[in-house]
Structure formats: structure tokens, C-alpha cells
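Is this the right way to post C-alpha cells for a design question? Let me know if I should format differently. Anyway, here goes:
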């Protein structure tokens, strides 16, 4: 099993002959191209084992153009052809993941829009606080959001592939420089994992009850509607 976190953040720029760059040499560019191909090679998927605490999960497929995570992490040595943006990887196995904190953030942001309590129930804000903050509850009695992991590669058996964006300066017609980055390939399947408990809110004589199964359905609706990860406003991170 290859640890892609190590390959990308520890070994990617290791042992390159940067002296060649001063003379416009090709050695670092050629080696970076080889390392890029290694990160996008087929048969790299290692399925992360189930978490014993997780009691609910579902799989969703990444839609074209793919899913982007970790782009705020710096990854640059100014070599032509390098991948310049970060990627989120699992710390232990080195597989690309969507962090549980990101999953939780998206679900919390849109939960109110996707859940419609009836008039006899208290405000959903109380349920949101219980589900996503779990104030006063032990880890065993509250909802937990785990990392979403890749469980199936794309049709070419890849989990990562490359893409480029071309930001323009003040003059959109002058020398745009593409930024090449890694993304989770479209066609990959992600498994979203949770530990969910039933939520019961009693307030002013009214009761709101949300079972673990009901919450899971709402979570799936949110993710398949709004997506997850970076650049969802331009089509990335869409799921089906």
C-alpha cells in the first residue's frame, strides 16, 4: 500500500536537482512529471476499514468534474508542471478523504433548509444545536461525523486525477498562468460515515423527535443537492 500523504507532502519535492532550474534545465520538470503520474496511477486505492463506532453510512458517487479538498494548503516550489494546491489525506493510511469536520460543516449549514418541522414541534434550531454541538453529552450519546472515504475508484481504476484553473489578473488577455492541481476523480464512490443517535427535544410542552434514520436521509439530501468540498459554485464536489 502506498501512502499518498507521504508521497505528496514529504517526497514530492525531495531530492530534486534545483540547480538545474537556474539554467532552465529540464531535470526537475521531467521528474515532477513522473511523480505526478505516480500520484494518478491506477490501483492505488486502499479501502479504509469500518469504524467500530459508526452505525450509519451511505455511498455517493463523485460527479464530473471531480471533488476538490485542501486547496488552501500551500504546495509549491515554482517548478513547471507541479501540482500547486493541497489535498486532504487520511493521516494513517494516506488515502484522499473529505474530513469529518467538512462534512459536519456542510450539513449544519443547510440542515434547517432541508428539514421542515410541523407546527406542533419546537424550533428546529434546538435540534441543530443538539445534533451538531451535542452540548453536555458524552461522545457515546451524541452524533459523530467521521471522514468520508473512497470505497470505489473510477472506471480507469484511479482515485486522483489532475485539473487546471487559470486565474486572470487585472488584464484577462495578458499571460494567464494555469494552476494545476489534484482532485478526487469523478466516478469514484465515497462512503459517508456517522454515529447517529435519536434526537428528542422537549420544549414548551411540544416534542420534536428525529430518529437516526431520518437524520441520515436528510444528510443524504443535503449532500446530493449542494455537494461538498471546494469550488462547488463552479461545479466541483457534486454527488449522486
Amino acid at each position: 500500500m502506498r501512502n499518498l500523504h507521504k508521497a505528496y507532502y514529504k517526497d514530492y519535492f525531495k531530492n530534486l536537482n534545483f540547480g538545474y532550474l537556474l539554467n532552465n534545465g529540464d531535470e526537475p520538470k521531467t521528474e515532477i512529471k513522473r511523480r505526478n503520474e505516480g500520484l494518478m496511477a491506477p490501483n492505488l486505492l486502499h479501502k479504509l476499514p469500518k469504524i467500530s463506532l459508526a452505525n450509519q453510512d451511505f455511498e455517493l458517487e463523485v460527479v464530473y468534474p471531480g471533488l476538490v479538498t485542501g486547496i488552501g494548503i500551500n504546495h509549491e516550489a515554482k517548478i513547471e508542471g507541479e501540482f500547486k494546491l493541497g489535498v486532504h489525506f487520511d493521516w494513517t493510511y494516506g488515502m484522499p478523504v473529505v474530513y469529518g469536520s467538512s462534512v459536519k460543516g456542510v450539513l449544519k449549514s443547510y440542515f434547517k433548509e432541508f428539514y421542515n418541522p410541523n407546527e406542533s414541534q419546537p424550533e428546529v434550531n434546538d435540534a441543530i444545536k443538539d445534533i451538531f454541538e451535542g452540548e453536555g453529552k458524552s461522545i457515546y450519546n451524541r452524533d459523530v461525523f467521521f471522514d468520508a472515504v473512497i470505497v470505489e475508484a473510477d472506471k480507469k481504476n484511479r482515485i486522483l486525477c489532475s485539473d487546471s484553473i487559470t486565474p486572470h489578473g487585472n488584464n484577462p488577455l495578458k499571460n494567464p498562468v494555469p494552476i494545476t492541481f489534484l482532485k478526487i476523480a469523478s466516478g469514484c464512490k465515497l462512503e459517508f460515515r456517522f454515529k447517529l443517535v435519536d434526537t428528542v427535544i422537549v420544549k414548551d410542552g411540544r416534542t420534536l423527535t428525529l430518529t437516526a434514520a431520518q437524520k441520515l436521509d436528510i444528510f443524504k439530501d443535503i449532500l446530493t443537492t449542494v455537494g461538498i468540498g471546494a469550488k462547488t459554485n463552479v461545479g466541483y464536489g457534486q454527488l449522486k
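Format looks fine. Someone answered above. Worth noting: The chain has a mean pLDDT of 88. The helical segments are 4-9, 19-22, 27-39, 100-114, 124-132, 212-226.
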